[in-house]
Amino acid sequence: MRYSIWNVLAQGLTGHRGWKPVWRDPAPQADYDIVIVGGGGHGLATAYYLAREFGARRIAVLEKGWLGGGNVGRNTTIIRSNYLLPGNEPFYEFSMKLWEGLEQELNYNAMVSQRGIINLFHTDAQRDAFVRRGNAMILHGADAELLDREGVRRLYPFLDFDNARFPIKGALMQRRGGTARHDAVAWGYARAADALGVDLIQNCEVTGMRIEAGRIRGLETTRGRIGARKVGVAVAGWSSRVMAMAGLRLPIESHVLQAFVTEGLKPFIDGVMTFGAGHFYVSQSDKGGLVFGGDIDGYNSYAQRGNLPVIEDVAEGGMALIPALGRARLLRSWGGVMDMSMDGSPIIDRTPVEGLYLNAGWCYGGFKATPASGFCFAHLIARDAPHPTAAAYRLDRFRRGLMIDEKGQGATPNLH
Ligand SMILES: Cc1cc2nc3c(=O)[nH]c(=O)nc-3n(C[C@H](O)[C@H](O)[C@H](O)COP(=O)(O)OP(=O)(O)OC[C@H]3O[C@@H](n4cnc5c(N)ncnc54)[C@H](O)[C@@H]3O)c2cc1C
Question: Looking at residue 282, what is its pLDDT?
Answer without folding.
Answer: 98
